[in-house]
Design a protein that fits this description.
This protein has twelve helices and eleven strands. The longest helix has 21 residues.
């Protein structure tokens, strides 16, 4: 690294959007089963008002029958996993001004011999990546979303992932499957196609990231650049895409849930508009001013921790992103967002 990186005194900005709901959420229990136990498109003439009428929990049991026959079990609304997934799903999209209704959630039952085998391969690969990395967390297994069509669901759970050669979202960050981090659900929701019954479908998977390398836009990379890497990301500090190479798609990905939901037919446009609006209107506060505001309200022990992390940031030891994550862990997302929004109001003279 150059000396300029270590000596940088640039004052970075923090926005409420940077305070993602990554820290402080209870983990979804996605434990593997005991592997030793037996066990079409919407009419293009539809209007926006027609689309709004789709936001209901009405469902067609016939439409989802192929899910059951491919080894999936439908969760009841009283199931804890159903409640947690639905709450996050609806709230994260609702934060972008989009009303959705979760119609059904199906869980991989791992009941067939081939499904058990794929789950076992995933476990073995996770252990291998961890052993190679030399640490308890080096497998870097994360939850991630993957948008699919209804027709793809039975095929994926029966036979595994296939690769057509080009991601469905056409955003070229290498040749592989693109997954959205759990906190970036909108990156998958934008590309979930609507079926003939007005439903969209997204997988919730576990993905072995291992050691990730940066993949730039326009790349035609199709496998890790060296043996030390396992996956790709579009941003090393705050990725919105996990890239799983086609060589790893049936060893490093374990699909566990299918979320079937209704949303406006102009979902993609609404989410894009929301993103643009947030970029233009989010209040910004420099890290220096944020520390000054925290000094007024934090107890000395917490403030000393924040001050230490800020000093590390100013010396180039940690990035702005890491600083924000550490501050979030100390004070919590709610207080941090209140401070940022309050600072923006004060600056505007409101």
């Amino acid at each position: 690294m150059s000396n300029s990186m270590h000596q940088s005194s640039t004052v970075h900005d923090v926005t409420p959007d940077a305070v993602t709901p990554e820290v402080g959420h209870p983990a979804i229990d996605l434990n593997l089963p005991d592997l030793n136990d037996p066990l079409e498109d919407q009419d293009p003439d539809s209007s926006v008002s027609d689309c709004e009428s789709l936001i209901s929990t009405c469902r067609s049991d016939t439409a989802l029958m192929p899910f059951i026959s491919s080894g999936l079990t439908e969760l009841s609304e009283g199931d804890q996993a159903f409640r947690i997934i639905r709450e996050r799903f609806v709230s994260w999209l609702g934060a972008h001004g989009v009303e959705v209704a979760v119609v059904a959630i199906h869980q991989n039952s791992f009941s067939s011999v081939s499904a058990k085998a794929r789950a076992q391969v995933f476990q073995l690969c996770s252990q291998a990546v961890q052993q190679r990395g030399g640490g308890s967390d080096t497998a870097n297994v994360r939850h991630a979303w993957y948008a699919i069509s209804r027709e793809e669901v039975p095929n994926i759970f029966s036979y595994g992932f296939g690769y057509s050669g080009k991601p469905m979202n056409s955003a070229l960050f290498g040749r592989g499957l693109y997954f959205a981090p759990e906190i970036h659900l909108i990156e998958s929701a934008k590309y979930a196609p609507m079926d003939r019954d007005g439903l969209r479908h997204i997988l919730l998977c576990r993905v072995i990231l291992g050691k990730s390398e940066l993949v730039t836009f326009g790349s035609e990379q199709s496998h890790p650049s060296s043996e030390q890497y396992d996956s790709g990301v579009d941003d090393l500090l705050s990725p919105t895409r996990y890239i799983v190479w086609s060589t790893h798609m049936n060893t490093h990905v374990l699909p566990e849930y299918v979320i079937s939901f209704r949303a406006p037919c102009d979902l993609r446009e609404r989410l894009r508009t929301s993103e643009m609006s947030r970029e233009q209107t989010s209040p910004r506060v420099s890290c220096r001013n944020l520390i000054s505001e925290l000094l007024k309200i934090l107890r000395p022990s917490d403030m000393n921790l924040v001050a230490k992390h800020y000093e590390d940031h100013m010396r180039g030891k940690i990035s702005r992103h890491v600083l924000v994550q550490k501050v979030r862990q100390i004070i919590g997302d709610k207080l941090l967002i209140e401070i940022i929004n309050g600072y923006g109001t004060k600056q505007s003279g409101a």
